[in-house]
Amino acid sequence: MIKIDGRILRDLSTASRKEDLYMHLQNAIKLEHATIPPYLTAWYSLLPGVNDEIGSLIRSIVMEEMLHMTIAANILVAIGGSPRINDPKFVPRYPGPLPMGIGEDLIVPIKAFSKDLVWSVFRRIEEPEHPIPVQHLMASGAAGEFATIGQFYAALKEQIRKLGDQIFVVGASRQVLSWFDTSLLFPIVDVASAVKAIDIVMVQGEGTRSDPFETPGVPAHFYRFEEIYYGKKIIKTPTGYAYAGDPVPFDKTAILPMIDNPDPADYVPGSQADLLSRSFSFSYSSLLNALNDCFNGSPGKIDTAIGLMYQLRLQAQKLMATPVRPDSPRTAGPVFQYVTSLPQRSSRMIYPTYGVHNPPQYSPCACPDCLYSRGPGEPSDPLYPLYWSAKWTMYRVFNNYVNHSPPYDGKPPAQLKEGVDYQVSYGATYYDSTWKGPNGEEGAMMEHYEEWSLPIFPIDNHFTSSFISLGNTAYFITYDKDRPKGMPPICLFSELNYPPKRDFIKHLPYSSGDSQRLGGRVQGYSFWTSPEDNKPPIQVGASPDRTADRGILFGYAFKSAWEPDAVDKSAPPYRHPHSFYFSGFPKTPPNAPIVSQNYTEFAMIKPDPKTTWDLVAKVSGGKPIPSCNLFGSQKLTNESGAEIPTWAGKKRE
After folding, report:
1. In angstroms, rounded to a whole number, what is the distance separating the alpha carbons of residues 227 and 18?
2. Cβ distance 55 to 112 under 8 Å?
């Protein structure tokens, strides 16, 4: 059994004020939480559909550890304390000891599931002071001046009884009371309710001295882990208890080959494993933030916390299916660390794209993961083909755009005149989701702008350029024929700007207004971003125009009709991309408040690497590639002195 430093019990036994209990309850919260990451990791590493009984047992224990953490937090709140959850010191270092002065040699790792892990770590965490003899149950000794966790909770109950009902000064309205059965999670308002809640923690974790079951048919945590180890359910026998019931099957080949004790240093910077690992750590930190809010005055946010827990599982399983390196048989794993803020976009040249070109964590989403649900009557989401090539015509509208919002059908409305209201330029896009790079990168895309570059930068854009994204990294290339003075042939645009995934449209809201503007011939998806950094989008749909409000438009349209491919006649019909419409930089240069990139000659033609992706190596010549500075470093303001937002966001180097 794991044991805590006996001095903790001595300190607890001398508590004379409710404030003396704050530290001990905070430690209880930390301890209950500390078991969750290793248990979760073991559960996540089980391939679905094979070791489901084991997964169900571990999941049930995790949920009860969440209950125990909530009970400890509610008691602390009830006596006037404030749980501290979103703090780097709250998260244990794995591998390492558990909180509360663990006195034995138990080092808790983050590892994929194994029976050895269950026996040597998990069951020891949950082992009661007096294990009930069960056939095959292994004995264990104890030494030193230590106390068990059960004794800690017993001492906590005793001190609460001594201090009496007067220490309970905060009502139930500030306690978390949902998601668990009311027989298990109830208001803590006096000694009786606090003692009853602590008894639940003790019985679920250790059972009682006479019964290994917390409730009929449900063993305490220690015995559930032994069921997993022995491969049999515990049952009552004429002489006591035995692991001789229904089988708990285990297929050791159905475990994801995750590395032990994942660390950020294990991953190649910018690789898929690195990206997924950082995304997981941020989501985990978001969970701790949500829990901190729950336990400090906003109990309704427990729904957000539970949602983030489910999200963590999906992220972890994707991480565990990603090789640490392309040639490695082992896969990446989750890093449980508290991240105090979003990674700085400016220092790493990561620009908000709301899930389209980089993970949602780098953008102020309006909904979890920037994933928009579709309502009744809205069409299903279109998909990009696996690969394609297309030419396009770009319309840069600088006059009379307020009453003529995109998408545009072929070209802007007849009321707008070329040369007076808009400028025309041309280019091409090449896309291949099947491309794989030497370091495990996935997906490639090139957008080529002939004579006139992408008009989102506050610079003269009268030059030819290309954006090439290889995996997560995006490069900007210029050409000898019209390269601006002082601009390098190639520069690093962003360390995290990947080609849109085939299903990227799930990150944009459907706009019936955009769709009906062209008589329903297209499916439009768009929003206007907020002029305030780190605030979610302010409007769905391109109309009304929000340029004057310093918003930025971001939208795509696909044709509503399913059409055959122009080249690959064997491909099934699909909804072809129609246009990409967005805000350019509204001042001169480049004077492009509204831009519409309308596709022509779209076809499933696989791009030739020699004329697309290989340009990065060819132009760089193997030399270090400098960083771009296309957005500039100066604050850009309009006539009234207000800052003009750009796709770089407000935080720039």
Report:
1. 40
2. no
**Is 635's pLDDT higher than 60?**
no
Give yes or no for a contact between 525 and 508, defined as CB atoms under 8 angstroms apart.
yes
Tens of pLDDT, residue by residue over 101-128, are 664 578 899 999 999 999 999 988 888 7
Contact in structure between 123 and 1 (CB atoms under 8 Å): no
Rounded to whole angstroms, the Cα distance separating 39 from 45 reads: 10
Residue with tokens 């280019």: 427
Q: Output Rg (C-alpha) for the chain, integer angstroms.
A: 30
Could you say which DSSP state residue 224 is in?
H
Residue 445: per-residue pLDDT? 98
CA separation for the pair 476, 480 (Å, rounded): 14
Q: Measured between alpha carbons, how far is 292 from 256 in angstroms, rounded to an integer? A: 32
Amino acid at 558: F
Q: What is the pTM of this model?
A: 0.59
Give the separation between CA 111 and CA 43, rounded to whole angstroms: 10
Query: Helices marked H in 423-523 — which ranges?
Result: 512-517
Give the pLDDT confidence score for residue 636 in this predicted structure.
55
Kindly report the average pLDDT of the chain as a whole number. Answer: 88
At 59 the three-state DSSP class reads helix
Torsion angles phi and psi, residue 91, rounded to 5: -90, 125
The vertex-59 CA angle with 58 and 60, nearest 5°, equals 90
Q: Which residues contact 51 (CB under 8 A, 6 or more apart)?
A: 113, 249, 250, 251, 254, 255
Please write the tens of the pLDDT for every residue from 450-484: 999 999 999 999 999 999 999 989 999 999 999 99
